[in-house]
Amino acid sequence: MSKATADIYDEFGDQVQVAQPMFNDYGQKRKFSGPVSTIKVYEDNSLVRAALEKTGNGRVLVVDGGGSLGCALVGDMLAKLGEDNGWEGIIVYGCIRDSAVIATMNIGVKALNTNPKKSVKKGVGDVDIPLEFADVRFVPGSHIYADEDGILVANEKLF
Length: 159
What we know:
- The longest helix is centred in the middle third of the chain and has 9 residues, at 76-84.
- Helix content is 18%, strand content 35%.
- It contains four helices and twelve strands.
- The chain has one domain (5-154): Glucose Oxidase, domain 1 (3-Layer(bba) Sandwich), CATH 3.50.30.40.
- By secondary structure, it is of the alpha/beta class.
């Protein structure tokens, strides 16, 4: 991604949603963009793993963990899967773990916070559904632009 989110907002402000500033950066890649894929889970990362095992083709995986701080939904092994399989980034409305290792990986990772506790593995959740959190609606196929200043969502690729 070549443009900063501030510049994208200045140029396309009426075409983007701005996520509330609640996410921290954890991956080495601080600027990332791509089409949205979504997952909705609660303290269960089985579907997150299943998604990241597939080819990402430059997409951004948006994980709605209900804002839970009770456990991590992404750790270094899942972030590595994402990096290896061509995912551009992962946004977690919840926690991650292994943040020091993830900081060395060439993938964008944003989350609310960290927690060393791992999630359960029941395979419960929904895939590729519209999500709403941080005052933004994330629809599969919409486009995310993210950097150190925040997250923008557009209905389509803007440039």
